[in-house]
Structure formats: C-alpha cells, structure tokens
C-alpha cells in the first residue's frame, strides 16, 4: 500500500477533496473506526497543531472524522459512521470543518509571527518548540531574558504592528539539499517520510513547516502575549488570539 498522499502540503487552503478508501479498520481504537484514503487534505495532529475534523461521504455511507493522526506514512482518520458504511475501493468526497481549521491555522501562524517579532527586536532567542492548541498556545526559545514584563510588552507591540501591516504567507516544497538556500533554521529531526515544505512570511527567509497557515498574517487578528517565563535558559512565550 502506498503511503498517503499529503494533499494539504500542496494546498493548505483547499478544504474539500475526492479520494479512494484504501483501508478500513472497524473498532481500531476506543470504539472508533480507522479509515485511510489514498490522498487527504485532513491535517493530522503534528508540529504542535491540532488535527482537523470533518465528513467523508460516499455512495453507501457518511463517516464523521473526529481525530486524525499520522502513523508510519499513513494518515489515519478516526471516527464513526453517521450513516451506512464505506468499503475499500469506494470513491468518496470530503469536507473539512473550516471553523476549526481556521482557528488552528491562525494560532499556528501566530507562532511563526512571534519568531519574526523576536528577530525584529534583536533578541538572541532560538525557537525550540511550538504549541498551537487553543487556550494553550506558546513558543519556547533557548536564550536569556532579564526583564520578562518589558520583553512581553515589546513582543506584543511588535507582533501587533506586523499583523496590522499584514503580509502574505507562502509555502514551497523543496528537497533536503535545497533547504539551506531557503531557510536559516535546519531542524535537527526532519521527518524522512514527508516532503519538506518551506513556509515564508513576507520576503523573509523561510522555515521548514508541515502545518497549515493563513494566507495573510493580518488574518491572525489582535494578538495577546499572555506571559513570558524564563527558567534554566528556556523562555516560554504564551500567546492568544481571539476566536
Ligand atoms: Zn508553520
């Protein structure tokens, strides 16, 4: 069986698609059925971004997707049949819940924006981890900070200045050999079973990222830096945006 074609890597804004069911495992986990398609736009949880939900529909059934995971090259859509069932080989169409995706894309893009704000302020902080789940979004950096409240206020002001200015977010698929031309930051553990997509904010050099993003940074809306905590060379910047 071929690994799932990750259609969301090519088009992160398309929320409807067609595919073929290649595997169906009833009661795969916690009473949920696992459905695998040959290609999918559903984003599986990863890189600190929550999974998509939505509906997969064929002639013989409707499947409600409740959780999406990436396992060994395959996107597992976990959920339940709302009507009927679907067989392996069935042609299906699907739609992704746009409200949930949009919030996740905005939260995730805000993490990138925060990195830009950190650079613009001349802070020598290196991003190590992003968490973009609603209500708990934060980026962690390696570095030092003395006055956390001053840094918080400055980062909030710079982030919102960039949001008000607005600029486009673009994505490009590149090979591992091409990556250094496009990105200053080469993460230590790049997945070897996914294409490398470089995401760029405006004219800046990009960063490798498999998540989903807004088209323009202005879509993030007013951003709040909730707090900055520093401990043992690690800085946690917690942020939020309006739903
Ligand atoms: Zn990203």
Concise synopsis of the structure shown:
The chain has helices spanning 7-10, 98-120, 148-165, 179-182; strands at 5-6, 16-29, 32-37, 39-40, 54-57, 61-71, 74-84, 91-96, 126-131, 138-142, 169-174, 196-201, 207-208, 224-231, 234-240.
Explain how this protein is built:
With 243 residues, this protein is α+β, with helices and mostly antiparallel strands. The protein folds into 2 domains: 5-96, Elongation Factor Tu (Ef-tu), domain 3 (Beta Barrel), CATH 2.40.30.130; 101-240, Threonyl-tRNA Synthetase, Chain A, domain 2 (2-Layer Sandwich), CATH 3.30.980. Helices cover 20% and strands 40% of the residues. It is built from 4 helices and 15 strands. Strands 2-3-7-6-5-8 form a 6-stranded antiparallel beta barrel. Helix 2 (98-120) crosses helix 3 (148-165). The longest helix has 23 residues, at 98-120. The radius of gyration is 19 Å and the shape is elongated. The mean pLDDT is 94. Bound molecules: zinc ion. Zinc ion (ZN) binds at residues 108, 112, 199, 209, 211, 213. Zinc ion is lined by residues 108, 112, 199, 209, 211, 213.
Hetero ligands = zinc ion
How many domains?
2
Total number of β-strand segments? 15
Number of helices: 4
Element-by-element helix/strand order: EHEEEEEEEHEEHEHEEEE
Oligomer: single chain
Biggest β-sheet description:
6 strands, antiparallel, barrel
List the helices and strands and how they pair.
Layout: E1 5-6, H1 7-10, E2 16-29, E3 32-37, E4 39-40, E5 54-57, E6 61-71, E7 74-84, E8 91-96, H2 98-120, E9 126-131, E10 138-142, H3 148-165, E11 169-174, H4 179-182, E12 196-201, E13 207-208, E14 224-231, E15 234-240
Parallel strand pairs: 1-4
Antiparallel strand pairs: 2-3, 2-8, 3-7, 5-6, 5-8, 6-7, 9-10, 10-15, 11-12, 12-13, 14-15
Helix pairs in contact: 2-3
The chain binds zinc ion.
């Amino acid at each position: 069986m071929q690994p799932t074609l990750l259609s969301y890597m090519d088009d992160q804004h398309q929320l409807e698609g067609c595919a073929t069911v290649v595997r169906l495992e009833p009661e795969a986990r916690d009473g949920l059925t696992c459905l695998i398609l040959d290609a999918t736009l559903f984003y599986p949880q990863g890189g600190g971004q929550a999974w998509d939900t939505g509906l997969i529909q064929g002639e013989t059934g409707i499947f409600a997707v409740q959780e999406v995971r990436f396992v060994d090259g395959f996107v597992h859509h976990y959920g339940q049949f709302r009507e009927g069932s679907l067989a392996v080989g069935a042609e299906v169409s699907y739609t992704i819940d746009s409200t949930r995706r949009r919030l996740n894309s905005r939260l995730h893009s805000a993490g990138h924006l925060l990195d830009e704000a950190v650079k613009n302020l001349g802070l020598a902080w290196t991003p190590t981890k992003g968490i973009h789940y609603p209500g708990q979004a934060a980026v962690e950096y390696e570095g030092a900070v003395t006055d956390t409240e001053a840094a918080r206020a400055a980062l909030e002001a710079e982030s919102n200045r960039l949001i008000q200015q607005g600029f486009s977010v673009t994505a490009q698929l590149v090979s591992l050999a091409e990556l250094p031309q496009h990105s200053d930051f080469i993460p230590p553990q790049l997945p070897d079973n996914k294409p490398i997509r470089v995401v760029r904010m405006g004219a800046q050099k990009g960063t490798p990222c498999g998540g989903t993003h807004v088209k323009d940074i202005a879509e993030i809306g007013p951003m709040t830096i909730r707090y900055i905590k520093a401990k043992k060379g690690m800085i946690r910047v917690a942020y939020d945006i309006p739903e």
